[in-house]
Amino acid sequence: MSSIKENVKALLAELPPGVELEAAAKGQPPEKILEAVEAGIKIIGENYVQEAMIAQAVVGRSVRWHFIGHLQKNKVKKAIEIFDLIETVDSLDLALEIEKRAAATSKIMPILIEVNSGREPQKFGVWPEKVIDLATEITKLPHLKLLGLMTMGPLTGDPEEARPYFRETRLLFEELKRINLPNCELRYLSMGMSNSYKIALEEGANLIRIGTRIFGPRGKK
Ligand SMILES: *Cc1c(COP(=O)(O)O)cnc(C)c1O
Question: How far apart are CA 58 and CA 1, in angstroms?
Fold first, then answer.
């Protein structure tokens, strides 16, 4: 099996210009995250606030930390403190909570809207037809800064099947740019994981979130 360092270096060498690599670190001990950082990772994605706090104590804040899990309202205060970007805002309710907490500390919180591009009822994310409305409301909130969109897409064995979902999300991203909302900077289209990032890149992703292909299969040490 190849090492974390080799995996990171191979991925970085493969990325087209303008694309950023995020290490999805859920379940990984801080020492492994540190290894990835030493190999050139600049963005860590975390699904849990608690896990991120533990990892940050070891890895430090010289890299950027993104939240990519489902954010509960009672974790918003802490999340604002420790993350540089929250990728998973999927309701006005959550956006308003972030606004309230960010305002209290005079911080402007960068966020992405999570799109449920597969329209899967059991999954988080806002359905594609609701994205423009949510973005319009979010850009009215002075302590949030909308930086783009994120999607998971349905998990399938064949990554090719993810293509239409990535494509629809990219078209939404372009539509958002076109309508020229105030108070946003549409920089990130976050899509693609270990099995699907190549397709995501073809469909315009500029931030890919990779776990397994960096750290190896989860649950195995
Ligand atoms: C775990 C996770 C990833 C990475 O998944 P892999 O298949 O291990 O690359 C990407 N995005 C999110 C939101 C995740 O939870």
Answer: 25
Is 220 part of a structural domain of the chain?
Answer: no
The mean per-residue pLDDT over the stretch 176-197 comes to 97
The domain that contains 61 carries what CATH number?
3.20.20.10
- Tell me the pLDDT band of 1, cut-offs 50, 70 and 90: low
The tally of domains found in the chain comes to: 1
Nearest-CA residue for atom 7 of ligand 1: 194
Residue keyed to tokens 């930086």: 147
pLDDT digits (tens, 9 = 90+) for 130-173: 999 999 999 999 999 999 999 999 988 899 999 999 999 999 99
- Cβ atoms within 10 Å, residue 208: 24
Q: Tell me which of 20, 32, 193, 194 to substitute to probe ligand 1's pocket, judged by most ligand atoms within 8 Å of the beta carbon.
A: 193
Q: What is the distance of C-alpha 16 from the center of its chain?
A: 19
Pocket residues for ligand 1 (CB within 6 Å)? Answer: 24, 26, 47, 68, 152, 193-194, 209-213
